[in-house]
Predict the structure.
Amino acid sequence: MYSTIEVRWFLEGSIPSEITEWFATMSQEMPLIEERTDRYFCTGSEDMSIKLRDGFIEIKERQKELGVQDLGPYTSGLVDTWTKWSFKLDAGTDYEQMVGASQKWLDIHKRRLLLIVPEAEGHAGYQLELSGITIGDQHWWSFGLEGTGQGREAESAFVRKSQLIRFPKREFFMGKYSMAYPQFVEMILQREHRER
């Protein structure tokens, strides 16, 4: 179990080239590249997610919503605190069959670019993530910032660090596009229901 503080945005379409270029300028280190499919259980809640990933089941529960924070010019985002649990699945159980038999799972394919900013001078590190997302024939992209810790001091430090990022002066990172993954999953499900 561990605690995180997060802000994330989701926008429809492929990642704009200017965003990819901007992300590349954020560190002298090469980003880690990860490609995977996560299977989200449709909880019906915007405060909890349950997903299958790489032989683990991961549970994420929102502890506090700090509201939409002003993070700079043209930039605002919903900051939340979360508790996460991760459990290794029993290798002898056919979870693929379980998932395939249920309509309550949503497959989200992700191609993630990750930058890890290590701890420095007593301040907690954090992770930057730029993801291309595919859900069936839908294409989205997401940018997120994730830190660790809990309590007011950690929350304030996270917001201050977020405000130091030189976000593009475009309307990509607005509060109306900012949500956590459980809210994004519910939005996709509602869209699919309307289109049936």
In short: The chain has a mean pLDDT of 89. The first strand starts at residue 2 and ends at 12. Residues 42 and 104 are 5 Å apart (CA to CA). The longest helix spans residues 181-195.
